[in-house]
Amino acid sequence: MRTLIVGAGALGGLLAARLLATGAPVCLATRDARGAARLKASGLKVTGVGGAVSVEAAQVAPVDGDLAGTPFDLIVLATKAHDAVEVAPKLARRLAPGGSLLPIQNGGVSQVLAEQLGGGCVLGGLSNLGATMASPGVYEQRNAGHLLVGELAGGTSERAERVQQWLGRAIEVRVTPNFRGAVWSKLLLNCSVTTLGAIAGTTMREYIAWPEGRELFDRTYDEALSVAFASGARPERMLVEPVPPAPRDGRGPGARDAWLEEIVRSYGDLKPSMLQDFERGRTTEVEYINGYVVRLGRHLGVPTPVNAAIVEAVGAITRGEAAPAPSLLSRVLQASPHG
After folding, report:
1. Strands of 72-77's sheet, edge to edge?
2. Which pTM was predicted?
């Protein structure tokens, strides 16, 4: 499959390097010509889990430049969410007949692009790979995670299996017949674990110990879960069970605490990626995470005041009107009272 990977950050660079190392025909698209020239000169190097590889980046060009040899059978969008939505219409025109556009961002990006582009070219993608970029072209794989692919409408398909086999040359890839459920399983955690940690300026393990942190986590998570159910999605288990115990299910009052502790063990010590966006002056993906929940909730008639207040808090930080701090958790609660 002639493949274009758009984005040379941690995830795109990791995937491109490992796929190129198998001898696959891969083109890499960067934000601008300067970035393309730098990667051509340096090549791509990966260390960490999965072993070390070092490859040349011969076919690399800016995303708006001359990507020779098109059309592509597979275009992987490994950019930030807002960049993916912006460039997808142009890139879709570079697909070969029957080709697939594979966004691998968090949140509702796959669904947004499917509605925007139509025609069924979008194949759902979701990453559980952990990677960091030390410098342009230099990456470290931090876990033995995988890429999940699936049809947005559900079920299995021949093209999903072809993509699994193709990208599986480089990384672990799994196919799910319940892609929407998988998206929501991760989105629920992004809305609560990631975004709340970002506005508090700390990890989940720290903020969940504060009464306002626990209350805000519970309300954020439960709002998003209500929207998921109202949309017809059924979140599926990934690292943790996405549906918390209900008080009436007979497991006792400590069941939710035990469920929450499992989440803390899995995610509690990670530095939120959105906090890193704040620190680096990058645009966050909140509009495709908590913002997506708010928009879909409005459409479905499900109230989402806490998620809406979180979006506002992230906006204030982005505009320089506030800074990440534990006190912002109380501000969000005050802006979204019960009832």
Report:
1. 60-62, 26-30, 3-6, 72-77, 95-103
2. 0.84
